[in-house]
Amino acid sequence: MTTPPPRHPDREFDGYLLLPGGREQLCDCRLWVPRSAREDAYLELWVPASPDVPVHTGPGPLSLRGQVGRATEITASGVWVREGPATVTPRRLAGRSEIVLAHVDRLTERHRFVDVTDRNGSPNKCVLTFGLTDCKYLNPANIVERNYTGDVKVSIAHLFEVSYLGVGRIAFERHYHSGSRLDIEGTIVTSSLVANLIDPSAALTNEVEPARERVSDVCLLASLAARHRVDVIEMTYANEIELCRTWLNPLSRPRPTAQTEWSDDVLVSAADFVDYFGFASANFCRATASDKQRVREAIYAVAPVFPLGGVEGAFLAQFSALEGLIRFGQPEVAGCATLLDADRWKVAKREVKRAIDSLGREFSKEDKDSMQQKVGELNRPPLRRALQSFLEAKGVVVTDLWPIFGSQEKPGLYEIRNRLAHGNRPADESLGALGVARIHLSLILERCTLSTLGFDVSRSRAIGPHTNADASKITELQALLRRTVFD
Fold first, then answer.
1. Measuring CA to CA, which residue among 393, 84, 33 is closest to residue 190?
2. What is the pTM of this model?
3. CB 235 within 8 A of CB 106
4. Beta-carbon neighbour count of residue 457 at 10 Å?
5. What is the CA radius of gyration of the chain?
6. CB of 449 within 8 A of CB of 224?
């Protein structure tokens, strides 16, 4: 956002920009906070154009702090300056110069209701709520009547409430807000999708960041079901002592869209969501840290926050995620999947290295050293074998989709991926064929991810008539790609 919203600023205060070397720059600050997931914050900074203290415009990150009255503190971390007064100004021309910010990691407003010294003991009732990017699938309510006063009546279509290890019960709700704008008469009603923690424990409210990470994983699992990425963009903590709100990446909030270019359907129906989430959360929570990351990367690829760079970028990202996902639950050495366990590989590696050392004089020392460095790759399973083993173990059927492995005559998804990775861009007339191949790759990745999380793929819309995947045209499309990419 380059211009402030069409309304009066929500906060005006004197702020201090902390510069390298411990110096502070006094700023006149005006803040517009975001009122919905589709709106960015706007932070306006003006500084005296003084020859004494030129504004730092070098590398960040910087930080900003300010006070609104006696009770409200505002801080910003991860502040990067895009433009600022880099030269001094003569005193006779002294005025105010604007600092334009490029990025802010976090913007926090903390308001104290009473002085801590006036209270004995700890607060009894706490509220912990996380604002989310918007998602129609998780939206539990629709406006059925709007009053001129700004009040609204809503109908509850469904209310998803799930449980997750480490945070307890979470309800996906919708909060409504009333406000006004300078360019529109009357009351403006906005709303936000939130994840509300029901009766949060003291441990969660004392350290909000671990709770945010867990709620982010909850939203990620929900994103898979919705085919629409849901991410945490706000945190609100409140008790009878204080109210604290934090906005994440407030100046440029993510606005992911549903994957509607090839399917208008969600992956898991709303009627099955709670059941799906029970399986998914249980299997995800018991996974190792590396296996959790593999699942995250798979969901990132099928439900991204930001566009993945066209059909070619999406194809490469999804194939890479599939390669990682099929290593789920496999033994690893130094982070890599292995054919043999550590003890058997130790024996095999010793014998292979001994065989290399015993090669004749026609092999130079440099030749032998190069082969020795490649020995570790012998314990890595070939992709075809690893993928087939995964599909068989998980019971995932992909025979109705574009073949994963093919040939130059009939390129499979693997051959397409190799060509794209080496910079071969399809001709314009074959982009449609590449798009179909990417749809089939998405379906394979969705099926594999659901099975990894323990949910029956047949209950999803990644299989059967919901896929819109016409297998009868694959041979024709393979021939088209062969002529334009593989010749």
1. 33
2. 0.84
3. no
4. 19
5. 28
6. yes
pLDDT of residue 96: 76
**So what's the pLDDT on residue 130?**
96
CB 174 within 8 A of CB 140: yes
Bridge pairing between strands 11-18 and 62-68: antiparallel
Residues of the chain with pLDDT under 70: 1-2, 49-59, 86-95, 115-124, 140-158, 183, 186-189, 260-264, 331-338, 377, 381, 465-471, 484-487
- Distance between CA atoms of residues 315 and 220, nearest Å: 20
Q: With helix as H, strand as E and coil as C, how does the chain read?
A: CCCCCCCCCCEEEEEEEECHHHCEEEEEEEEECCCCCCCCCEEEEEEECCCCCCCCCCCCCEEEEEEECCCEEEEEEEEEEEECCCCCCCHHHCCEEEEEEEECCEEEEEEECCCHHHCCCCCCCCEEEEEECCCCCCCCEEEEEECCCCCEEEEECCCCEEEECCCEEEEEEEEEEEEEECCEEEEEEEEEEEEEECCCCHHHHHCHHHHHHHHHHHHHHHHHHHCCCCCEEEEEEECCCEEEEEEECCCCCCCCCCCCCCCCCCCCCHHHHHHHHHHHHHHHHHCCHHHHHHHHHHHHHHCCCCCCCHHHHHHHHHHHHHHHHCCCCCCEECCEECCCCHHHHHHHHHHHHHHHHCCCCCCCHHHHHHHHHHHHHHHCCCHHHHHHHHHHHHCCCCCCCCCCCCCCCCCCHHHHHHHHHCCCCCCHHHHHHHHHHHHHHHHHHHHHHHHHCCCCHHHCCCCHHHHCCCHHHHHHHHHHHHHHHHC
Cα-flanking dihedrals φ and ψ of residue 30, to 5°? Answer: -130, 135
* Token reading at 170: 């979470």
d(Cα 381, Cα 338) in Å, to the nearest integer? 6
What number of other Cβ atoms are within 10 A of residue 231's Cβ?
20
- Taking the CA atoms of 170, 176, 177 and 182 in sequence, report the sign of the dihedral they define: positive
Chain mean position to CA 220: 8
Residue whose C-alpha is closest to residue 460's, from 304, 284, 276: 276
Q: Extract the tokens encoding 441.
A: 């790759």
**Alpha-carbon distance 65 to 61, whole Å?**
14
The Cα 405–Cα 436 span in angstroms is: 16
Beta strand pairing call for 42-48 and 24-32: antiparallel
Rounded Cα distance between 143 and 133, Å, is 19
Look up tokens 């065989």; give the residue.
355
pLDDT of residue 154: 63
**For residue 281, which of 394, 166, 109, 437 has the smallest C-alpha distance?**
166
